[in-house]
Amino acid sequence: MTIRGVDEWADGWNFRAPVSFADVRRSALPADGPKRSGWYLLGFSDNTYYLGESVDLRSRMGGHAAKWGNEIASVRLLPKAASKQQLRVVERTLIRELRTQKTPLRNVVHSDVTTGRDALDELFGDEMQKQWIRDPRGVNARDTTPLKNLSEQEVRYSTAARRFSDLPEAPALTALLRTFLEACVPSPRATEFQYWSVSTGTYGGSKFPRRFCISVGMMEVFVAHGVKDSPGAVQGILNVRESTLLSRVGSLHSLRRRHPGVRIEVRDYVDAGGDLLCLKPKDLNAIEGLLADPDVTAAAAQLVLDLMRKHFCVYTRYHCPQLVQLVYPEYRRSAEDSKEDATTQLDSSIPYVESVSIDIEPETNIDVEELGDVDLYWIVGCGPRASGRNQVDDFIAKGEWRMDPDPRYEAKVADMLPGEPIAVRTRRNTTADGLPFDRRGHRVSVMDFYLRGTITENPGDGCSVRVSWEPLLPIPREYYLYTSQDTVWALARGVLSLADDLIGFVFDDSKQDVDYVRNLPFWAERFGDR
Known about the structure:
Layout: H1 6-12, E1 19-20, H2 21-27, E2 38-44, E3 49-54, H3 57-68, E4 72-79, H4 84-100, H5 126-134, H6 136-141, H7 151-156, H8 158-166, H9 170-184, H10 188-191, E5 196-199, E6 210-216, E7 219-227, E8 230-240, H11 242-249, H12 252-258, E9 262-269, E10 273-281, H13 284-291, H14 294-310, H15 321-327, H16 338-343, E11 376-380, H17 392-398, E12 400-402, H18 407-415, E13 421-430, E14 444-457, E15 464-469, E16 477-480, E17 488-492, H19 497-507, H20 514-518, H21 521-527
Parallel strand pairs: 11-13
Antiparallel strand pairs: 1-4, 2-3, 2-4, 5-6, 6-7, 7-8, 8-10, 9-10, 11-17, 12-15, 13-14, 14-15, 14-16
Helix pairs in contact: 2-3, 9-13, 9-15, 11-14
C-alpha cells in the first residue's frame, strides 16, 4: 500500500492550508469572528500529529496552546456547521485513515474535549454562563454571532419550511420562536444545531399537528401545535424548572391565578429529573402570556442551561434552518463553508422509530425521546402496480427511490441521510401452505424484499432519495408476521429485539428467527408452540 503524505491526505478532505499555530487564533479564528465548529489537524515540531474536533475551534486552540505550547508548529482547519455527534463520527473516520497510513498521532483514543467539563463549557465558560442566567435577554442582545451555514439541512427540509411559511399563523409562530430564543436560550445563533434544534411538521399525529418543536439535549422544551378541525388555532407545551419558578411566584396556586389559560403538570423526565413543570397553554394568547412573564422565562432558561450543560442536542437530524432564518431576518447564513459542505460527507445518528400499522406487537411503540443516538435503517415500498409508477425496475434504472407526494411520509423522507441503508419491499397476506411454521388456518402477513442499497443523496423534495443499489435479488426474500404496509418505515438497531431481527434479516443476510417471533405474546395464540 502506498502511504500518502499527510498534507496530500488533508488536501483530499479539503482542510484549509496550513497556518502557524501561533497565529491561528488571530488570522483564521479571530476573537471578533463567529464561533466555528469543525475538525483540525495539529502538526508538531517532531513530525507527529493530532486530529481533533470541536464546536468552538478558537477555544480548543487555546486549550492546546496551554497543554503543548511551542511544540505545535502548524494547524490545518476544516470548519463545518455540524452537531457534536456528527463531528465525532467523522473524527473517528479521519483518525482511522491516518492510523491506516501509519501517521504518527498523539491521539490516545478518540479525542473528547469535554472530559471533566460540562458540555457547554467548550463554548461558554463558567463566568459567561453565570452572566447569562442572571440576564438572558441582555446578554443575548449584545451577541452579534452570525447564522451558521447549514445548506445540507436546508435542502432536506425545504418542503417542511415552505409549508410552515404557508400557514396563516406563521408570523405569530415566528414571533413566539424569537421570544423564546432570546429569553431562554444562551446565544441562540452560536448554539444553534450543536446545542438546540427546531423542527417543523414532524410527529404529533393528526389531532395535534406540530407547528414547531425546540429540543435541547434529549428532550423537547418548547412545542407549538395546531388543533384538528380548528384552522389557525395554536396550543403549546413549555417545560420549565419547578424550583426556579416556585422560588419566584411562591406556589402553583399563584401561578394558576396568574395564568388561568394554562394547564400545569408535574413531570419527572429522564433528561431533566424530577425538578420539572410542564406548562400547557390552551391558545396563542396563553402562550404569549407565558413568554411575557419574566418569572416563567427565567425558569425555562434555567432548564435549557442545565440541559445544555449535560450534553449536546441529539435531535439535530430534524433541525430546520429556514425557521431560524425567519426568526433572524437581519442575519444571513454564511456561504463561506459551501465548498466544505459540498464535499465533506457526514453521518448523523439521531433517533426515529415509527410505529408499524400491521401486526404490531405492543412493545413496538417506543418513545423516540428515550432512544439516544442510534443508526437508522429504512424500509420503503413501491407504488401501486396499477399506476405503473415507482416500481422496482424504475428505482434501478434511475438510481433512486421515489414515492408519490404524501404528507404522511414527506417529513420522514426528509430525514433520510446519505450513507444510511435502504431496502424495498411489498407486503401481502398469504394463506399458502409450506411456510416455515404451521399457520393453523390463519392468514399470515409477509413482506417480500426485492432490493437494498445505500442512500447517496437527499434532494429535499420530500419524495425521493438517490440510492446506490445492490443487484436485484433473483428471488424475493420473505419475512413473516412482524410487518408494515407504511410507505416509509424507519428502524433502529439495539432498541427492540424484533427490529434487530428484521434489520439482521434485511441488511445482514441473517435468517429470520421465526420461532422467536411467532411465540411472542401478540402471535403466540395463533402461531406459537403449544
